[in-house]
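Follow-up to my post from last week.
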Amino acid sequence: MDIEKELRNLSQEARELPPQLNMERIVRKTKRRKTIHTISFAGRSVLSVAAGLFILLFIGVNSSVSIARAFTEMPLIGGLSESLVIRRDIRQVIRNREDIGEVIGAGGLHEVSMTKEGKNSDLSFTIDSYLADESSFSAFVRLDGELPSDFAYLEITNISINDTDRVKPVEYYNSGMYKDIRIGELQFMQFFWERPSTDFVIGFDIIVYRFNSEPLEESFNFKFEDVEIPEAKYVPINQIFNLEGYEILFTEMIIAQSSTKIIYEDPSIYGIDFYGFDIYLTDSDGHVLSDATEYNSYSFMEGRKNYTCVILPTVYYKETEDIQINIAGASFSRYDERILSVNIRHKMASFDGRTIPVEVYERSTYEDFGLPADPDLYGIESIVIFVPYDDSMPFFNAPYEIFDDMNIYKNKYDYPITTIDGQDYMVIQCPVYFESNDVYHFVAISDSKKARYRTTIDVDIEG
Amino acid sequence: MRDEEFFDRIEKIRKRMYSIAYSYFYSESMAVDMVDDAIYRGYLKKDTLKEEAYFETWMTRILLNCCATQYKKEKRHRSFEEYIVEHEPSDQPDVRHLELKDAVSHLPEDLRTIISLKYFADLTTQEIADTLKIPMGTVGTRVRKALDLLKTALGGD
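User reply:
Got it. Predicted complex:
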């Protein structure tokens, strides 16, 4: 067996550069990319949310392998019931989405056939029909028309929702790219929203890339008014899950027609860098109502506490009285709650109530002091901080509460300790883009681990 | 660094970036997303790049960070040891192709990175050493260790 040969064969899969990585698109996308705006629709929910977030699922008839795989991995309770009266083209698009099929079968589909003509091409965009509940807004859409003869590919991007019911408009903006678009074929899009809105404008940008000329761009906006949103069921949970000695409070379950949300306190506040639960739902007979392998989630703040909301696609189980939340695993790292804070301007650090003078060298790197280079900071302007170190300190290895910049959560190794004139120093190389008002915070984080559980939380949804 | 120069230099390494990202996820769309993300982050931070001669290495590091972080988010936390215990090698050629992907994806991060850079990005040992700032000897050691683990996983001798 020649593993090297097999690896080289495997690498051939990546030999052809996808058309999306042509330079014209890269330049355009990079320069136009915007920060995702957060939204805050006025409250219907029990919880008031500081920052909401939409998450988009997109499924076409020729949906991507990854998305198709994701859904086929879900243990569905059964195929779409043949007795449901669902249009053939819609049934084909949602063939793996029993949750959506049930909602449609129950009369939740609103056929609107709203069409907008493009201004720069022969393309038109149609919202055929939609479903809405307190968890998500879903639309069946279709792009029609003639593509230019030198058509390369097209993508849908810059999807936005503006709530027109608010004095100060709030916006959802998604700069993502959805390329599995086929002319004349129905596509399914699902937006999970934190706050449902009855009056809003949803916008889509279509970019048609061409081999020999500038891309064509179209923007399509659709106004929705008085959207009927069936009420979800809000069920308090108020039960504790014990995660490695830390108590995690599960607060609430929100059962909407197409999905179920479960809200729990974010355990990161307890000294854990938490990545998520493996979580699924069963009914009182043990039937699986959702699956642990694929779900969306978002975090929000209520008061001074952080919460996480997981969204599990579920078939509406309004007849069920008892639900079990099953927790099969949790992934996390621990971090030492003791924080080392370094004030660069005043050249002082604080730790465990002590104030410690530090030395700060701007525009420096480890290599300037004969220390091994930090590969993550190679070539990046940085400062070097010498903190007098003693055995009472842990081995710090991670910046703390630094905004998720470049995704450096954790160094691969502890900051080095060096001895100068008999004094030990912990030496921290810090990139200058960690702009935190001159104060840098550091903690010690353990390697990530996954703990297995077989814990169930019983929820009486009839109260 | 001016925008024009940034994108000129991106053009020269985009193929390599795609290959590296692909080796993490074996998905074209995912790899494109990762390359997009890395380019955007590099674009935002290009003025903090101290020495422009290190641009390629710097972008590769950013990409590796993006891929590793996304990888972590996908919760593929099963260790290689667990993978070996639970895995039954197959003799079917098509299945072996998938098994190899699966085995590579379960390698420890430092070994997976080496495999990505050597076999997918076609970097030389010197280039890998420069990118990861580790001695060339360490590159060789990690390559051998990764290959040994893969051989074990796939039921080799």
